[in-house]
């Protein structure tokens, strides 16, 4: 645990104001009086930074709901093309009928008519959908679809508030970075397409717990998030590679066991009493063909070749493993140990970029991670611009394919450009994060001498295993050596004993 002296020093350090560090934030602040205006003094009164971030996120969520008004009023119910031309499509009202909720069927237990057979979502997401169905009032089928979307929107709004608060509190000195999440245009546009915000909120809460060195709580929340969506399990990969360098294996195993236990508690009842329904998510994920947003679709459309699903699954898995191996090497060879948020972003992005589908709402997975990993408005807005263009591109492409002979919308070639822009935007975000890792002096979070303020047990911890140049050249922030073993392997230097780096805030 941190000492009293460390804690007092940490608490006395002032809150970082992005308007004093970021030229884009400073320019944007002119809309509310500039960085020296009265809004710059927020924090001492009732409008604390965390509350401001939460309120702004709620406001942006509401704007996203307004954007769906044409579909809510009529476009969801008058053919496919209208909901695409108005860019207001959502899975939620359609699956209310298509997955049996309108008929009172219980997900995973009751068999559906048609080819789907069972609900194809993880168990916790299925529970979320079922609770919304219970809260949906009766009436005509159109009215119930509208109300089902509205009830889900209310529940997802709670998830939004949780996400915003957790991101704003993860880095104690940088709560204003939460505005990157709250003001993200892609967040407002995609928040109610699907149920991803449930997993995003749980993942944000898990990262907050990790930053507070509550390892077991982190693991439990990761398990719950993985029971809602698959991607949160990759956070354990980031913990693994950082534990390799920092020697924090106890924390890794505690987090992993906590995640496995909470995931099993949620899944076990359905696994035992409805095994066929429980397996549907995994069989569907395995068997679904390559789909929208992925580079696989560009290859298939450009070549005219229908790539077998098995080939896509195998190559996609190998590519993900290769990128994860690259991230491991990067972590062990970096001049300073990468920050936890940086690695989480890279690992999750590696999974998304190589996947056979890159749905528009997947941007929600990355928005909180990007705000913590690279809190620079320029890079964040460049990436968001790419995501907004893709958001428009996919709906215009679907409008083109469903408008018959009218051909209203974006043709195939234009959609391929939108996919490429989508992928390049994510790659750009990853590239600037990798640059920060290789050139830590350019990392805005570390400019004040911090190590990994949201990294929990990794913040200020010593390195115990590094490779290459990093082994021969300890990090600049190194403090006088203290007792303790260290093993390094780099080039011809061989094993070296000793310790470098400042004493960690928590004792092993």
UniProtKB/TrEMBL annotation:
<feature type="transmembrane region" description="Helical">
    <location>
        <begin position="180"/>
        <end position="210"/>
    </location>
</feature>
<feature type="transmembrane region" description="Helical">
    <location>
        <begin position="118"/>
        <end position="135"/>
    </location>
</feature>
<feature type="transmembrane region" description="Helical">
    <location>
        <begin position="252"/>
        <end position="274"/>
    </location>
</feature>
<dbReference type="Pfam" id="PF09594">
    <property type="entry name" value="GT87"/>
</dbReference>
<feature type="transmembrane region" description="Helical">
    <location>
        <begin position="147"/>
        <end position="168"/>
    </location>
</feature>
<keyword id="KW-0472">Membrane</keyword>
<dbReference type="InterPro" id="IPR016570">
    <property type="entry name" value="UCP010361"/>
</dbReference>
<feature type="transmembrane region" description="Helical">
    <location>
        <begin position="380"/>
        <end position="398"/>
    </location>
</feature>
<keyword id="KW-0808">Transferase</keyword>
<feature type="transmembrane region" description="Helical">
    <location>
        <begin position="340"/>
        <end position="359"/>
    </location>
</feature>
<feature type="region of interest" description="Disordered">
    <location>
        <begin position="1"/>
        <end position="20"/>
    </location>
</feature>
<feature type="region of interest" description="Disordered">
    <location>
        <begin position="476"/>
        <end position="508"/>
    </location>
</feature>
<feature type="compositionally biased region" description="Basic and acidic residues">
    <location>
        <begin position="7"/>
        <end position="20"/>
    </location>
</feature>
<protein>
    <submittedName>
        <fullName>Glycosyltransferase family 87 protein</fullName>
    </submittedName>
</protein>
<feature type="transmembrane region" description="Helical">
    <location>
        <begin position="216"/>
        <end position="240"/>
    </location>
</feature>
<keyword id="KW-1133">Transmembrane helix</keyword>
<feature type="transmembrane region" description="Helical">
    <location>
        <begin position="48"/>
        <end position="66"/>
    </location>
</feature>
<keyword id="KW-0812">Transmembrane</keyword>
<feature type="transmembrane region" description="Helical">
    <location>
        <begin position="318"/>
        <end position="334"/>
    </location>
</feature>
<dbReference type="InterPro" id="IPR018584">
    <property type="entry name" value="GT87"/>
</dbReference>
<keyword id="KW-1003">Cell membrane</keyword>
<comment type="similarity">
    <text>Belongs to the glycosyltransferase 87 family.</text>
</comment>
């Amino acid at each position: 645990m941190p000492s009293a002296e460390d804690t007092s020093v940490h608490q006395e350090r002032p809150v970082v104001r992005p308007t004093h560090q970021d030229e884009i934030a400073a320019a944007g602040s002119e809309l509310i009086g500039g960085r020296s205006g009265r809004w710059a003094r927020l924090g001492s009164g009732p409008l604390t930074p965390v509350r401001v971030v939460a309120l702004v996120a709620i406001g942006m969520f509401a704007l996203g709901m307004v954007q769906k008004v044409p579909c809510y009023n009529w476009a969801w119910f008058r053919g496919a093309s209208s909901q695409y031309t108005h860019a207001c499509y959502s899975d939620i009202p359609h699956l209310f009928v298509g997955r049996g909720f309108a008929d009172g069927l219980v997900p995973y237990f009751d068999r559906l008519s048609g080819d789907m057979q069972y609900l194809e979502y993880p168990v916790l997401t299925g529970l979320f959908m079922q609770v919304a169905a219970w809260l949906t009032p009766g009436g005509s089928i159109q009215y119930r679809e509208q109300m089902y979307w509205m009830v889900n929107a209310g529940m997802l709004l709670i998830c939004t508030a949780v996400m915003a608060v957790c991101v704003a509190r993860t880095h104690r000195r940088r709560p204003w970075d939460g505005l990157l999440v709250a003001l993200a245009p892609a967040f407002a546009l995609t928040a109610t397409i699907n149920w991803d915000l449930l997993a995003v909120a749980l993942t944000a809460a898990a990262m907050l717990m990790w930053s507070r060195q509550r390892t077991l709580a982190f693991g439990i929340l990761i398990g719950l998030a993985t029971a809602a969506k698959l991607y949160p399990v990759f956070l354990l990969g980031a913990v693994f590679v950082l534990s390799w360098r920092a020697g924090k294996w106890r924390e890794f195993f505690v987090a992993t066991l906590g995640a496995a236990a909470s995931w099993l508690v949620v899944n076990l009842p359905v696994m035992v009493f409805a095994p066929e329904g429980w397996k549907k998510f995994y069989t569907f994920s395995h068997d679904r063909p390559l789909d929208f947003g992925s580079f696989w679709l560009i290859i298939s459309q450009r070549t005219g070749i229908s790539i077998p699903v098995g080939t896509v699954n195998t190559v996609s898995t190998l590519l993900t493993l290769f990128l994860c191996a690259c991230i491991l090497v990067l972590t062990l060879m970096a001049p300073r140990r990468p920050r936890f948020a940086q690695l989480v972003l890279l690992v999750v992005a590696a999974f998304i970029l190589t996947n056979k589908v890159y749905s528009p709402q997947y941007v929600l997975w990355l928005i909180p991670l990007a705000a913590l990993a690279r809190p620079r408005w320029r890079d964040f807005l460049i990436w968001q611009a790419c995501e907004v263009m893709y958001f428009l591109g996919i709906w215009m492409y679907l409008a083109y394919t469903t408008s018959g002979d009218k051909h209203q919308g974006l043709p195939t070639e234009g959609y391929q450009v939108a996919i490429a822009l989508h992928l390049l935007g994510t790659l750009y975000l990853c590239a600037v994060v990798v640059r920060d890792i290789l050139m830590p002096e350019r990392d805005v979070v570390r400019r004040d001498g911090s190590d990994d303020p949201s990294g929990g047990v990794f913040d200020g911890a010593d390195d115990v295993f590094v490779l290459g140049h990093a082994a021969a050249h300890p990090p600049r922030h190194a403090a006088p050596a203290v007792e303790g073993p260290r093993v390094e392997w780099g080039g011809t230097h061989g094993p070296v004993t000793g310790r470098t780096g400042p004493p960690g805030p928590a004792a092993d």
